[in-house]
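Co-fold these.
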Amino acid sequence: MTALLEVAGLESGYGDALVLRGVSLRAERDEIVSLIGPNGAGKSTLLKTIYGLVPARAGSIHLLGREITRLRADRLTHAGVNFVPQVDNVFPTLSVSENLKVSVLPVPRSERADALARVEALFPIVRERARQQAGTLSGGQRKLVALARAVVTQPVLLLLDEPSAGLAPNAVAEVFEKLREIVSLGIGIVMVEQNARRALALSHRGYVLDMGRNAFEGTGGELLGDPNVVALYLGSGAGRTGPPPA
Amino acid sequence: MTNLLEVRDVVRSFGGVRAVDRASLDVGAGSITSLIGPNGAGKSTLFNIVSGFLRADEGTVSFEGRRIDRLPPHRIAQSGLVRTFQTARALGRMTVLDNVTLAAPRQPGERLLRNVTRSRATRLRERDVRTRAHELLALVRLDGHAHELAATLSGGQRKLLDFARVLMTEPRLVLLDEPMAGVNPVLRGELLEHVVALRESHGVTVLLVEHDLEVVMGVSDQVVVMSDGAVIATGPPDGVRSDARVVDAYLGVEA
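Predicted complex below.
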């Protein structure tokens, strides 16, 4: 079967610095794939390289069997890939509804109204806060609007850089719940998360990156149960963000 | 325990919204105090007021018994109250090492004469600063990047650099704004141990905004909970954790 996303032997970097040194990765539709690993391992660079923001120097990226390795970000948006960066992911001076109207532009004119209506159903905040300036939203609300902006482009693949960073426990739960709903629509998600235990618990598959290379991979459960992964990358328990056990 | 920091009835509005609404809190000398609450509760605004980046509309802030609510940020920092930022800032065109050494106080190079004469005391102080900077970079695992430009660091690494920079200032009170967000779980544990050690060995007082409850519950002497701009609960970690208002406003129910 053709994978939604197939990354093979990918290398990329900035200037003299090579950050990715041959990374491979696979993701399917209906799947949440988490990238975890130390700071500076190349996780965000991997997302940016897939989305064409950092040029690939070697290796290949295929989306549903079609090579997309050298496509620019705007082309990728039209091809069904979208990226939500960790910060600067909404237009702060535009209202929430204006943010969505700008974001829906890649969708064919005749389908825009439907796309907006679907996103409003999935993200009630889009209607509740329609007139509010996006820059005045709280961190959690802003993350939801950023996700809504990406979903409205009707992607097949979403790339998310730390969707839960900076969120209060109740907001983390809400964002992760939305991710579950998004994949149930047939969208694949590849995300970087430092909230690693919770992310893996939600993920169908996980990859540990270290020094720009694949270190471990497996289902979320396998990685959570692997003593090496726990010792090297997950720690003893500090780092678990969520409500305390009852 | 005497209070190092006292915040009294602080109010700050943006347009029609009261982001901070008569908030008061005390931070005891030598304590670790955590400030928690939902996104949009006013925690970062209060941090900005305490560190001088924003003016309060009403209320007072005192540090070591002296009013600081009308002082500019650099004066507050010089008096020993230093902060980090949620989205870390670094001087991108300087090396990682220089970013840290720059933060050291009492640098002889700041004075023209000492810079020219380069006495033994000057050289010793500069050597100490460099040694300390390397130690701090090792602590946050950036020693391998010491001579690279700060702009080449990843987002999480910049956060770690900011942490090292703040410790280099030899602060009396550190305000940490979500120090663990974006930092990998193993390193979180180590940083946390270091925060506790700083208090033990140097008597540094810590005020922390953090969403990682293991961190908050594990190290705090006192937890202050904000919601809608107001302080809704203050107390030891266990008491706050079981407070119904806190569960409702912040923790939510485990899915």
